[in-house]
Backbone:
């Protein structure tokens, strides 16, 4: 008898429907946490630290521990916990788990959400420190004024180190009058006529114009990061809730762990990344419930652990009596790899 691949399309749609429902609140929560942090910067202390070349004082002026970290931890614990529970409840409506209903009182949802929110807090806090430190030392090396550096610091809080450098590169291209600046996807296209005119005339942009355009680019970069974080975290939470339902199904006898595996589902289009493309190939018969998938970047438990904004999903593969067989779509991917 052939294996039964349990509703892969249903599981994928379910996973992303639940995640998408929480995408907006997750993105807004990140942006609000950044706004609160920037608004509460001690400007006098920041300027004093910059004037004295005292990096420790600079960081004391930025309320990471008092504002940013608690705001992200509280909001994301709540949002991810809700996503986790909703995914578990929705998964229980699919036929694979019979009449099992997700236990809404299960403390694992809270524990998982708190762990994930804590990890996100560490990630964001570290990136803020790196971006601020890079900005400060750049200002020191270039002989910038404390006021200039303070403005730059406010602009990059919330961005990764790489994104901070992208903002600086954008500013440099504007200042140098390079047409390459018009290739930057996150630029505000409303400024394009002004930029083209400045380049063609050779007159260049004014400082006020450069500041305004760079600020707008940084704002768009921040929204882009907020979107990436929100997409990644909600997909992970939805997948984790799905996997928790399967764990409960095994514990209560609705699924036979020896005859059931989880399998990685990809979206086989031009946007499919090289990492995710190889996961079904590296795990052709899936993996036991609760175990990690092998990937080009190491073991991963669920989608979005490989890279931000992952579009993959999970489904169940059940042995119908002849042992686990490789699903046709996995064979096709292996042949194309």
Residues:
């Amino acid at each position: 008898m052939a294996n039964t691949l349990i509703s892969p399309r249903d599981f994928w749609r379910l996973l992303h429907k639940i995640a998408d429902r929480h995408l907006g609140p997750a993105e807004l929560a990140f942006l609000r946490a950044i706004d609160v942090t920037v608004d509460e910067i001690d400007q006098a202390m920041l300027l004093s630290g910059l004037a004295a070349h005292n990096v420790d004082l600079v960081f004391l002026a930025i309320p990471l521990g008092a504002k940013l970290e608690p705001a992200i931890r509280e909001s994301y614990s709540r949002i991810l916990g809700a996503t986790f529970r909703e995914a578990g409840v929705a998964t229980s409506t699919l036929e694979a788990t019979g009449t099992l209903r997700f236990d809404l009182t299960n403390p694992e949802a809270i524990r998982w959400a708190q762990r994930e929110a804590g990890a996100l807090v560490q990630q964001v806090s570290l990136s803020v420190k790196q971006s601020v430190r890079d900005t400060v030392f750049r200002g020191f090396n270039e002989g910038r004024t404390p006021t200039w550096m303070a403005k730059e610091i406010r602009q990059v809080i919330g961005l990764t180190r790489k994104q901070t450098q992208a903002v600086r590169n954008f500013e440099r291209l504007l200042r140098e009058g390079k047409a390459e600046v018009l290739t930057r996807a996150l630029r505000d296209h409303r400024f394009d006529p002004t930029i083209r005119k400045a380049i063609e005339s050779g007159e260049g942009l004014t400082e006020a114009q450069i500041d305004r355009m760079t600020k707008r680019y940084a704002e768009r970069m921040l929204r882009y990061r907020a979107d990436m974080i929100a997409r990644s975290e909600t997909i992970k939470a939805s997948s984790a809730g799905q996997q928790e339902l399967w764990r409960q199904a095994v514990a209560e006898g609705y699924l036979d762990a020896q005859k059931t595996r989880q399998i990685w589902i990809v979206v086989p289009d031009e946007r499919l990344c090289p990492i995710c493309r190889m996961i079904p190939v590296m795990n052709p018969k899936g993996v036991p419930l609760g175990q990690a998938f092998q990937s080009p970047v190491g073991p991963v438990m669920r989608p979005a652990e490989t890279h931000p904004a992952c579009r993959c999903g999970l489904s169940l593969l059940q042995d119908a009596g002849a042992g686990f067989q490789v699903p046709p779509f996995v064979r096709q991917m292996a042949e194309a790899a």
Observations:
- The mean pLDDT is 90.
